[in-house]
């Protein structure tokens, strides 16, 4: 196997769309989980593992759990960054943590976590180290302990 050269990962950047808000202009809580998925998809693409490539290999990545803690409301017109880390990876499952910060001030708006598994099309767990060693090495290179 080749040695993985870690790339500098840029945080996911986004603005709030009007349709994501309630009548008061505050983002509805369900959107944070969607944003986590957008950030995770962007992250995987940045490290060379875009979802479409993963799925072409017959690998599915179901969500096993998701949580979000809301600190301060985000409103229509706000711009924010999502910083994420893979904090656990064993080749069968992985965990990602998220921090949603105001782009201008850096103020923390929310934190969250998602857990995922690797399965085939029959929903049978895949052992990435054995079946997809290059992908395993790439993911392992980006694990950060909290």
**Could you say what the CATH architecture is?**
Roll
What profile does the largest beta sheet have?
Answer: 5 strands, antiparallel
Distance between the termini: 28 Å
Give the ordered list of helices and strands. Answer: EHHEEEEHH
CATH topology (fold) name: Thiol Ester Dehydrase, Chain A
Rounded to an integer, what's the Rg over CA atoms?
Answer: 16 Å
Find the structural class using helix and strand composition. Answer: alpha+beta
- Which stretches are low in confidence, meaning pLDDT under 50 for 5 or more residues running? none
Reading off the top of the CATH hierarchy, the class is best stated as Alpha Beta
What average pLDDT do the residues reach?
95
Strand arrangement, major sheet: 1-3-4-5-2
Could you explain the architecture of this structure?
This protein has 146 residues and is of the alpha+beta class. The chain has one domain: Hotdog Thioesterase (Thiol Ester Dehydrase, Chain A), CATH 3.10.129.10. 25% of the residues lie in helices and 29% in strands. A 5-stranded antiparallel sheet has the order 1-3-4-5-2, with helices on one face. A hairpin with a 5-residue loop joins strand 4 and strand 5.
Please render the helix and strand layout as text.
Blueprint: E1 12-15, H1 30-46, H2 51-56, E2 63-70, E3 79-89, E4 93-102, E5 108-117, H3 128-131, H4 133-141
Antiparallel strand pairs: 1-3, 2-5, 3-4, 4-5
């Amino acid at each position: 196997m080749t040695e993985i050269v870690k790339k500098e990962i840029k945080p996911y950047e986004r603005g709030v769309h009007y349709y994501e808000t309630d009548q008061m202009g505050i983002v509805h809580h369900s959107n944070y989980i969607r944003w986590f998925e957008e950030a995770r998809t962007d992250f995987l693409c940045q490290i060379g593992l875009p979802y479409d490539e993963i799925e072409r290999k017959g690998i599915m990545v179901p969500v096993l759990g998701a949580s979000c803690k809301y600190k301060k409301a985000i409103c229509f017109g706000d711009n924010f960054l999502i910083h994420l880390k893979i904090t656990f990876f064993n080749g069968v499952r992985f965990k990602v943590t998220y921090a949603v910060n105001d782009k201008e001030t850096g103020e923390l708006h929310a934190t969250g976590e998602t857990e995922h598994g690797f399965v085939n099309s029959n929903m049978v767990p895949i052992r990435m180290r054995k079946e997809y060693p290059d992908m395993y090495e790439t993911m392992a290179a980006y694990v950060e302990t909290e």
